[in-house]
TrEMBL record:
This is ANKF1 protein. Transmembrane segments: none annotated. GO terms for cellular component: spindle. Pfam families: fn3. The lineage of its organism: Eukaryota, Metazoa, Chordata, Craniata, Vertebrata.
Length: 690
């Protein structure tokens, strides 16, 4: 079969331009090819081509050229070019796993020439070995055939060149001879690489951790030896017996971008032994047992059978809200509110069609009072009225001092933008008490309804954690919402923020700016806060630092500016699960009231969690500018692990009980470095829920 393939190749060579006459010539050919296919692929669809058949031919030609260029780059051991092609083109565009006429794939050439960097780059991109090599014997026979037939072709061409008189045909034969001599040397090098290779060593390290009450996570590292061929896959095996007899299961990992595997469907409370072995073109190497040698699937809740704190909370709140609505069935707007989401099926462009009409009630300037403004932004643009004003409506022109309780109430209302009409009616019914607080909150609901009606949008976004106050007695409550759709709006225009800032004519002095001027000056900071508050942590177990400070009317919590919806924290490890055994150890620490930074020397090497916590505490103390010796009086919160979904969990580090919350006027000797802010506790809780 291989002989017939080579004959077909020879016939094809006679009909097409000759191959590269030397490595340099091959490199030139490759660069020409790679230059040709480095075009915008979408250009084939721009109307310059006539007919689908011609487009398909060009597409196939594009794929052929890219595939040929990749083979040339691998054969020439041009790592930079291989990486560039893998970066800019998909495996499908490169035809990465389609064998050439010799039955080889790019990965085969890389591993048999023992070019580890190129082989690793190909493996990261999803390259496979040729399916033709089902055994060591078949690979050896295949390589021997390639070498023998390449040598035969070299001898034939050499005889023709020697016997023929110098002419144009002779010059072509010399080029072919040089190309085949170069290919003959390549095949011999591949054959020698295969013959001198040996099976891989065991993985250098295998780490086993408990991922949940029914799964284990295995993380492993490639063998340290560089004398064997490139590893192309790994095998994970598990058993309840240390002898691995019987074997309960195995999994082959051939996607080597991340060397880890999660074994799922295990029985809680059962010990499992794990081992991992590596594979290369010479076969499977010896297995490496995990550290620790076994693990038991479990979760910290199994320690006392505790149910998740938030289980059923969302359902209970929905039920409670339903009961409240049932009591207020007489409200005339209850039914319209229920059907309101259907009216929101209008496109955003239609709902904003009448936005900022000259007859609207948006304000241009502020007088002494309480106001609401809504900022809608997309990238670096902000939505403004036809008069280049940020939309502002009045809440109360006689309100000179915003109580923190009213502001915090409004932030909770922001979780129910769709229920504003119903809330208005309910508050109206309750106004018989003539409460000043209810009157203020009713005016807030009126202003929200007015803003929603003028904008044609129900969701006004997230309330900024701090109102803007100026010396003229104005108080401005700000909501922020990012618009992610790429739609055009009628009668509305997006204005670059920098342009709005420079074109607005201030009516106040620099010494005493109005609330609107202060908003424009700080709008980028507010948008940055809004974007950061929606960021999520990567999966893992974290150590959080809880620090509060109290004022007359509120308690504030210390958070990082980069993630204001999360406590100050450092990452302990990527595995978010705390096993039952680890939780028992933490409970033991808490019961003996030992400092968190001390532990008997024998436990240091046997307890990975202790080592991880020790490193995390040092990092966290440095982050918040607290001397490490002060940490000896700190303690871990041992009542529960804070779970945020299935992928993120927190252990809390608490200062001494007297220092958890700093009272007004109390001196805090250890102030955090820059990059932190304090949020009202209720705002932080809402951000955490979002």
């Amino acid at each position: 079969k291989m002989t017939q393939q080579m004959r077909d190749l020879q016939l094809a060579q006679a009909r097409k331009p000759p191959g590269p006459s030397s490595p340099n010539a091959a490199k030139r050919l490759y660069r020409n090819l790679s230059g040709k296919f480095r075009v915008n692929y979408t250009s084939f669809d721009e109307g310059s081509l006539v007919g689908r058949g011609e487009k398909e031919k060009l597409r196939k030609s594009y794929l052929f050229q890219s595939n040929a260029a990749l083979f040339e780059a691998v054969e020439l051991q041009d790592l930079d070019r291989v990486q560039e092609m893998l970066k800019h083109y998909s495996p499908e565009e490169l035809d990465l796993n389609t064998p050439n006429s010799e039955g080889l794939l790019p990965l085969d050439i890389a591993i048999m020439t023992n070019n580890a960097p190129i082989a690793r780059a190909l493996l990261q991109a999803g390259a496979k070995e040729s399916p033709h090599f089902v055994s060591l014997e078949s690979r050896s026979l295949h390589l021997s055939t390639l070498v023998r037939e390449a040598e035969q072709r070299v001898n034939e061409l050499m005889a023709q060149v020697v016997n023929e008189a110098p002419n144009a045909d002779c010059s072509e034969k010399e080029k072919q001879l040089k190309a085949w001599e170069w290919r003959f040397r390549l095949y011999k090098r591949m054959k020698a690489g295969f013959e001198h290779a040996r099976v891989p060593d065991a993985p250098s390290s295998v780490h086993l951790s408990v991922a949940s009450s029914s799964s284990l996570q295995v993380t492993f590292w490639e063998p340290l030896s560089v004398n064997s061929a490139v590893v192309t896959k790994y095998k994970v095996e598990w058993s309840c017996s240390p002898t691995f007899s019987p074997l309960l299961g195995e999994a082959v990992i051939d996607k080597l971008k991340d060397l880890h595997f999660t074994i799922e469907g295990l029985v809680s409370g059962t010990a499992y032994h794990i081992r991992v072995s590596a594979y290369n073109m010479k076969g499977w190497g010896p297995p490496q047992a995990s550290m620790p040698p076994f693990a038991i699937p479990s979760n910290w809740r199994e320690y006392d059978g505790r149910a998740p704190r938030r289980r059923g909370q969302a359902e209970a709140l929905d039920h409670l809200l339903g009961q409240v609505k049932t009591v207020h069935q007489h409200c005339i707007c209850h039914e319209p509110c229920r059907n309101q989401p259907q009216s929101r099926k209008h496109s955003v462009s239609k709902s904003l069609k009448h936005l900022f009409h000259p007859g609207s009630k948006f304000l241009k300037t502020l007088k002494r009072g309480l106001y609401l403004t809504a900022i809608f932004y997309k990238d670096d643009n902000i939505l403004v009225t036809h008069e280049d004003q940020i939309p502002v409506v009045e809440i109360d022109d006689t309100y000179s001092c915003l109580l923190m309780q009213d502001f915090l109430w409004l932030t909770k209302v922001s979780c129910m933008w769709d229920e504003i009409l119903w809330l208005r009616q309910c508050v109206t019914v309750s106004q018989s008490s003539c409460s000043c607080i209810l009157q203020t909150r009713f005016k807030m609901l009126l202003a929200i309804s007015q803003m929603q009606g003028l904008l044609g949008i129900q969701d006004l976004g997230q309330v900024f954690f701090e109102p803007i106050k100026d010396k003229q007695g104005n108080i401005l409550i700000v909501t922020l919402k990012e618009v992610k759709t790429n739609q055009t709006f009628e009668s509305v225009r997006w204005v670059p923020i920098c342009k709005l800032q420079t074109s607005r004519k201030s009516v106040s002095s620099p010494e005493e700016p109005t609330a609107l001027d202060m908003l424009l000056i700080s709008v980028q900071d507010k948008l940055a806060y809004h974007q950061r508050s929606s960021h999520a942590l990567s999966p893992g177990l974290y150590l959080g630092y809880l620090k509060l400070c109290s004022a007359v009317d509120q308690i504030r919590v210390l958070v990082p500016e980069q993630l204001p919806n999360i406590l100050c924290h450092v990452k302990i490890r990527s595995n978010p699960n705390i096993s039952r055994e680890e939780w028992e150890w933490l409970q033991k620490m808490a019961s003996v009231e030992e400092p968190v930074t001390t532990e008997p020397e024998t436990d240091r090497s046997q307890n990975p969690l202790f080592q991880e916590l020790h490193v995390a505490i040092k990092e966290l103390m440095t982050l918040v500018n607290i001397p490490l010796q002060e940490a000896k009086d700190f303690r871990l919160y041992s009542q529960e692990v804070l779970d945020f979904g299935d992928q993120v969990s927190f252990l809390l580090l608490l200062p001494p009980s007297d220092d958890v919350c700093t009272a007004p006027g109390q001196n805090n000797p250890y102030t955090p470095r820059s990059g932190f802010l304090t949020l009202p506790l209720q705002i932080f809780e809402l951000g955490e829920e979002r």
